[in-house]
């Protein structure tokens, strides 16, 4: 049985923890709003990009000279998995869920006899997979010092992936991130970057419109220009979705933690009061029985 | 009264402009071109330069754009630029930084093709810097 003093100390400590989790929750809520706005602001760009690429892709369908970024290398032996996670923990299952999805994919690819390479963006993802898949990690990119993810950060990652692709280091590239659905729901997602996974253009309605398009320079050059950009754009979108998801996950995790701490304090307080009363009763009995003995 | 059309200027970070305008001048890779209402469907990549937007009121807004493309469709003009900044917010410091980056790219280029591209990028940036200084 802990003594009264022990109980008092524990209550004080849980209260201090509760204050911290409460503060973290509020910080996450404030950051979430900003992250959400950023993610929403980036959507029109990524969507337009997708549409335009889909239009252009129609012209190249089935052609031999289609760019490799779109058609692939004709091989799928080596896979590059880009696992984007947060830099910090204390955000519930956020990092674990992304890492889990990535790990499952890596395992199934290895089981099929494919070569797997992993590129980690964010420290926590690397921490999560380094124990069993550490040997496959080719590089880790940390964004710890970056406060707000800018396009420049995504572009840097995109260029790195492209230079690896051009050097023939992999055939298929997949990005793992968490899609921000709502504050309480984040969905780990796998998105194929190379070869580009393009939405098929609506052939009925648009085929007439696309054919009269005039291109300057020609289609091939525009496509060659756009495909690498598209990689960076998709990564940027993934990072922004991730940022919003992270704050959402942290907010609900910290909300839970605050509530649990509250429950714990209640329990400890009841325990404390009960013991205090018991102690008083014991003292009284001692005095009374002492007086009676006289 | 000039006819208006829908113009959108989007960068990866935000949508800068979405409104009805009279005329837009875009710095295309193969040369500058103007877009008015009912322009035929057209698509072009853009080079670093100044994009001019003439509004209904006659006021002209200028934006510095870099990397991306312009898409003219029946619904209007959309410019997707990797970087787009109103000229009023731009300063020579930022431009100089980019010129330095471009110079490094030229120095780092491994083969002739990339080197040529990097050099072109650099010269385009320098053109913009000169144009801004003159203004």
Automatic annotation (TrEMBL), chain A:
Top-rank lineage group of the source organism: Bacteria
PROSITE patterns: ATPASE_GAMMA (PS00153)
Keyword annotations of the record: ATP synthesis, Cell inner membrane, Cell membrane, CF(1), Hydrogen ion transport, Ion transport, Membrane, Transport
Membrane topology category: Peripheral membrane protein
GO cellular component, as recorded: plasma membrane; proton-transporting ATP synthase complex; thylakoid
Subcellular location: Cell membrane; Membrane; Thylakoid
The keyword Acetylation appears for this protein: no
Listed SUPFAM superfamilies: ATP synthase (F1-ATPase), gamma subunit
GO process terms (BP): proton motive force-driven plasma membrane ATP synthesis
Subunit structure: F-type ATPases have 2 components, CF(1) - the catalytic core - and CF(0) - the membrane proton channel. CF(1) has five subunits: alpha(3), beta(3), gamma(1), delta(1), epsilon(1). CF(0) has three main subunits: a, b and c.
Family: Belongs to the ATPase gamma chain family.
Record protein name field: ATP synthase gamma chain
Organism field: Roseibium hamelinense
UniProtKB/TrEMBL annotation, chain B:
Coiled coil ranges: 92-135
Database matches in InterPro entries: ATP_synth_F1_dsu/esu, ATP_synth_F1_dsu/esu_N, ATPsynth_dsu/esu_N
This protein's UniProt keywords: ATP synthesis, Cell membrane, CF(1), Coiled coil, Hydrogen ion transport, Ion transport, Membrane, Transport
Domain spans labelled ATP synthase F1 complex delta/epsilon subunit N-terminal: 5-84
Cellular component annotations (GO), alphabetically ordered: endomembrane system; plasma membrane; proton-transporting ATP synthase complex
Topology versus the membrane: Peripheral membrane protein
Localisation per UniProt entry: Cell membrane; Endomembrane system
CDD domains referenced in this protein's UniProt entry, alphabetically: F1-ATPase_delta
Source taxon at top rank: Bacteria
Pfam family, one: ATP-synt_DE_N
GO MF terms held by the record: ATP binding; proton-transporting ATP synthase activity, rotational mechanism
Subunit structure: F-type ATPases have 2 components, CF(1) - the catalytic core - and CF(0) - the membrane proton channel. CF(1) has five subunits: alpha(3), beta(3), gamma(1), delta(1), epsilon(1). CF(0) has three main subunits: a, b and c.
Record family assignment: Belongs to the ATPase epsilon chain family.
Function, in words: Produces ATP from ADP in the presence of a proton gradient across the membrane.
Protein name: ATP synthase epsilon chain
Source organism of the structure: Roseibium hamelinense
Gene expressing this chain: atpC
């Amino acid at each position: 049985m802990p003594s009264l003093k022990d109980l008092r100390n524990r209550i004080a400590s849980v209260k201090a923890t509760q204050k911290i989790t409460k503060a973290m929750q509020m910080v996450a809520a404030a950051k979430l709003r900003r992250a959400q706005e950023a993610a929403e602001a980036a959507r029109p760009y990524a969507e337009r990009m997708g549409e335009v690429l889909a239009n252009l892709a129609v012209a190249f369908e089935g052609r031999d000279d289609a760019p490799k970024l779109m058609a692939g290398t004709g091989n799928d032996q080596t896979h590059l998995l880009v696992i984007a996670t947060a830099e910090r923990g204390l955000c519930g299952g956020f990092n674990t869920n992304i890492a889990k999805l990535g790990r499952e994919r890596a395992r199934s690819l290895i089981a099929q006899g494919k070569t797997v390479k992993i590129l980690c963006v964010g420290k926590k993802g690397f921490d999560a997979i380094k124990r069993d898949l550490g040997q496959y990690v080719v590089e880790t990119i940390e964004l710890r010092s970056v406060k707000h993810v800018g396009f420049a950060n995504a572009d840097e990652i995109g260029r790195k992936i492209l230079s690896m692709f051009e050097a023939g280091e992999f055939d298929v590239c997949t990005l793992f991130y968490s899609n921000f659905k709502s504050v309480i729901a984040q969905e780990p997602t796998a998105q194929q970057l190379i070869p580009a996974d393009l939405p098929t253009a609506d052939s009925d309605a648009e085929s007439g419109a696309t054919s009269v398009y005039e291109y300057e320079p020609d289609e091939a050059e525009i496509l060659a220009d756009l495909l690498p950009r598209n990689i960076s754009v998709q990564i940027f979108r993934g990072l922004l979705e991730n940022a919003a998801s992270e704050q959402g996950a942290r907010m609900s995790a910290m909300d839970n933690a605050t509530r649990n701490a509250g429950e714990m304090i209640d329990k400890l307080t009841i325990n404390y009061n009960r013991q205090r009363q018991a102690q008083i009763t014991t003292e009284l009995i001692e005095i009374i029985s002492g007086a009676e003995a006289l | 009264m000039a006819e208006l059309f829908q113009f959108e200027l989007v960068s990866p970070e935000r949508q800068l402009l979405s409104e009805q305008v009279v005329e837009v001048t875009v710095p295309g890779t193969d040369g500058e071109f103007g877009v008015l209402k009912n322009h035929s469907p057209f698509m072009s990549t853009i080079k670093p330069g100044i994009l001019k937007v003439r509004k209904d009121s006659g006021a002209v807004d200028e934006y510095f754009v870099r990397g991306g493309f312009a898409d003219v469709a029946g619904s209007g003009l959309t410019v997707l630029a990797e970087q787009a900044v109103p000229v009023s917010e731009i300063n020579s410091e930022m431009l100089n930084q980019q010129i330095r980056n471009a110079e490094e790219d030229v120095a780092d280029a491994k083969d002739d093709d990339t080197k040529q591209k990097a050099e072109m990028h650099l010269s385009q940036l320098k053109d913009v810097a000169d144009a801004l200084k003159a203004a």
